[in-house]
Amino acid sequence: MAYTLKELQELSDDQLISEHDALAQSTVMGINYYRDELNRRGQNRQTEAMLLYTRRLLWLTVFVAILTVVNVVAILIPLFREIP
Length: 84
Fold this sequence. Notes:
- By secondary structure, this protein is mainly α.
- The chain has one domain (10-82).
- The chain contains three helices and no strands.
- It has helices at 5-10, 13-24, 31-82.
- The protein starts with a helix and ends with a helix.
């Protein structure tokens, strides 16, 4: 039995896993099945790495912004001290 797209989207993850496991008992899988799973896992690893890099870049940007403010203050303080 095939689900409509709406029915398929409404299934929970556990229901999808159960349906998959039931069909897997009587289905012969081709080599693409395994290759697709390896590609999906590789994509997940790349996504996690990109999220890590994004977080690091965010903190680096915050750090540079703070240093920029400190630099501006360090330059302005001597300038205002020289004004009589």
